Amino acid sequence: MSDNLQTRIQSEIESARAACDTGNAQDCAAAWDAVEELQAEASHQREQGTDKTSLETYCDNNPDADECRVYDN
After folding, report:
1. I need a labelling partner for 40 at 20 to 30 A (CA). Which of 23, 29, 30, 71 fits?
2. CA distances in angstroms from 32 to 3, 19, 20, listed in the order given
3. Each residue's pLDDT tens digit, 10-64
4. Residue 9: how many CB atoms within 10 A of its CB?
5. Residues contacting residue 37 through CB under 8 Å, at least 6 positions apart
6. Would you call 72 exposed, middle or buried from its count of C-beta atoms within 10 A (0-12, 13-18, 19+)?
């Protein structure tokens, strides 16, 4: 998960707590919904990152390596 996304989640959590402190239930619920959506996005990003093999990850980082060459027949 990116640091930017983690920072956004923390910021939204703080905003949600502040919204709940005001006593407005609708604003509180909406703020926590925003937190939940960001957390779902973070989870989705983590899931996508685990589908790659170690070779695929290596080739993403080193596309010019001999091991990563693709030949068209």
Report:
1. 23
2. 20, 9, 9
3. 999 999 999 999 988 999 999 999 999 999 988 888 777 666 778 888 888 988 8
4. 19
5. none
6. exposed
Decide: 35 and 10 in contact? Cβ < 8 Å: no
How confident is residue 2, by pLDDT bands cut at 50, 70 and 90? low
> Residue 7 is encoded by which pair of tokens?
């920072």
Residue linked to tokens 């960001």: 38
Task: Record the pTM.
Answer: 0.61
Cα 32 from Cα 54, distance rounded (Å): 36
